[in-house]
Amino acid sequence: MATLDKVAVIGAGSVGSAVAYATTIDRLAGETALYDIDGARASAEALDLSHGLQFVGGGHVRGGDDIRICADADLVIVTAGATHGPGRTRLDLAGGNVALIRSLLPSLLEQAPDAIYVLVSNPVDVITYAAQEISGLPAGRVIGSGTVLDSSRLRHLLAERLGIAVTSVHAMVVGEHGDSEVVLWSSATVGGTPLLEVVGPDGNRVVAGELEGIRAEVRDAAARIIRGKGNTNLAIGLATARIARAISRDERAVLPVSVRTDVPGAGDVCLSLPSVVGREGVLTCLATPLDDDEREGLRRSAAALRAVIDAVC
Q1: Which positions ≥6 away from 159 have C-beta within 8 Å?
Q2: Would you say 108 and 119 are in contact if contact means Cβ atoms under 8 Å apart?
Q3: What is the pTM of this model?
Q4: pLDDT computed for residue 90 by the predictor
């Protein structure tokens, strides 16, 4: 099973630590480097994780505040930045987190010039655009975590309502990772059967009148978690590890990651589209069929992102 030599995780807060934990369990690299300006925190998280390496078959984890620990990483995952606490949207964070990536990225590129860069910091689509602009790397090597988590939330909700396994639900969220995200209802299926035609084992169905409520529940899921525990970290750690696994093992998996593209009627942005992800990053975006509402929703989502990009990038 192919793995990377080294993964560097930037930011040792709750999200970065969850990402390091998930990628270590999945044995995606021989070495994990955890970097943070709070060197004591990074070192402690790395030591804690190192104590469990016996249970996953070995490896190496180290942490600190010296950027040189990221040297020669094959994959760099950026989680550093302010988070969207109660009353703040992902887009509210744009200015500060773009400034952070502007100061941080040149040093990372010096240490890991050949890496694939995965951005997780919010607002992830804006941060991904800024990172690709600053780095000058090909768009396919600068990837946002996008709506991989949103799509998982959607599939979980649909599986719960129908009483079936989440792995049998095929439905995707595209566009912004945020308020303007778009659910591709027209192509949602369960075992190849269109979603609205599915009857679960207990007679459960999803009807057309429920769709907007389900979309709102997916959109607002993070806010609900934040109200209860102050942040989201576990599922985004797993979602990011899923992207890393596609890269590490050259799976060429189709995932709704954020990548730079031109959206007709809105312009040049980063947003999530079904994309083929492998060892070289995003290899191509699929020409996904959209109905008229989905096409217009994607245009509006791109326009909202373009307005923020114009303001902060």
Answers
A1: 165, 166, 168, 169
A2: no
A3: 0.96
A4: 56
Nearest CA-CA partner of 20 in 50, 55, 65, 54? 50
Render pLDDT for 82-113 as a digit per residue (tens, 0 to 9): 776 555 665 678 889 999 999 999 999 999 99
30, 103, 136, 211, 222 from 8: Cα distances, Å: 11, 17, 20, 39, 26
Where does the chain have alpha helices with state H? 14-25, 39-50, 94-111, 124-135, 148-162, 211-219, 221-229, 234-248, 292-312
Q: φ and ψ at 147, to 5 degrees? A: -105, 25
Residue in the structure block whose two tokens are 């790395």: 46
Query: What are residue 266's phi and psi, to 5 degrees?
Result: -130, -35
Report d(CA 175, CA 93) in Å as an integer: 18
Q: Where do the domains of the chain lie, and which CATH numbers do they carry?
A: 4-144 (3.40.50.720), 148-312 (3.90.110.10)
Q: How many CB atoms lie within 10 A of CB 229?
A: 10
Block residue for tokens 């990837």: 143
pLDDT of residue 2: 59
* Burial classification of residue 262, based on how many CB atoms lie within 10 Å of its CB (0-12 exposed, 13-18 middle, 19 or more buried): exposed
The residue written with tokens 């560097």 in the block is 8
Which token pair is 144?
A: 């946002």
Tokens of 10: 């930037």
**279 within 8 A of 247, measured Cβ to Cβ:** yes
C-alpha count within 13 angstroms, C-beta hemisphere, residue 128:
33
Residue 56 burial (CB count, 10 A): 12
Residues marked active site are found at 177
SS3 258: strand
Can you read off the two tokens belonging to residue 187? 């192509």
Q: Report the relative pairing of strands 142-144 and 116-119 from DSSP bridges.
A: parallel
Cis peptide leading into residue 201 (ω within 30°)? no
